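FAQ: What does the model actually see?

It sees only this:
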Amino acid sequence: MHESITECPVEVAVKLIGGKWKIVILNQLAYHGPKRFNELRRIFPEITQRMLTLQLRELEVDGLINRKIYHEIPPKVEYSLSELGSSILPVLIKLQDWGLYYMEQKKVNETV
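And it is asked to produce this:
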């Protein structure tokens, strides 16, 4: 991601983790450790192969995940959180907490 110096830090963060799949991929790697491509496909069956590839590449380019290639037959590639990606854990926890709060409030408002 190439940001200008005048961008808002929140805007930069949202660009890095925004979209339908990036945050759930990061969350999966954060809580369940390294995963292979096909493992992620099984975990998220709604994502297309093309979209998963794109999201993983963007996360890798932005330094949030590592891609480790094992030189064996058949080839093995694993994705894991990078050190920088691990720094987003407190944000993911806060987002989860806020999401739960929002869901509870919505449920309360619907019953009123």
